[in-house]
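Problem: given the chain below (276 residues), write out its structure.
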Amino acid sequence: MSKKNRKLPLSTLILGVLAVVLLGISAIGGARAALTYFSKEYTSQLKMLDIGISLYEDNEFLEKPLLVSNRDYANKEYSDSLKLKDNWNESRTRLLNGYPEDIELGKEYKEVLRVSNTGTIDEYVRVKVYKYWVKTDTGEPVKATDLDPTLIEIQWADDLDKYWIKDTENSIGDANGINETTVLYYREPLKVGQSTSDITKSLKITYPITARITQTVEKVGTKTIYTTKYDYDGVTFMLEAEADGVQTHNVKDAMLSAWGRKVTFDGSGKVTGFAK
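Solution.
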């Protein structure tokens, strides 16, 4: 590996976008969800609800923001048992669209993520951003838990704190979110057809990666052989994002049920923090 123009292979993980509806069985991962009514009182309130969420990416290689993943609940039908039939409109593609196969170390690349409400009701939004290394020299990609995710440097939007609040209890990293997982809640309810403020603004792989080496010493007869290996040779960085939303009706219970968090609000419905 040349010291002057070091590059790493580009790899991305498909983004999973999950729209969660309260008072139902919330889905986990990429699975689907079925809404089960718990009382006749909620039946009339929820018949016309249609929750949807989409994640967009913009970078210097795209002509315009690209829809990378969406999940909209649609075409609802009801059975005699008052169970909502599972029917999602969804699509997904890779992240980091348009990037070259190799990227330069230390170069900052524009990478903007934002979320849109593509449903027919207002919703609160949560986003998770993951970054980590995988080893691919054994065939199937394996997460490299011994390699430092801080070298995958995400630059957050300049006004992030104004519009988003970080869930530090469920984020893995320091106050800047530079470690592996960052969990963010959008402070305001996102209205139908509107988009959030930007979440990120750029991405780069930092130079210190070239200084991470392992040196071995081997005696062969009268000779001493020194072998130097870059710890990050043969690995690929991964960037993953996940967005999900809950309806604004009975929102405290919605977030607790879907996300396992007690969230506090001010009088206008703005997210202010987290409670134990």
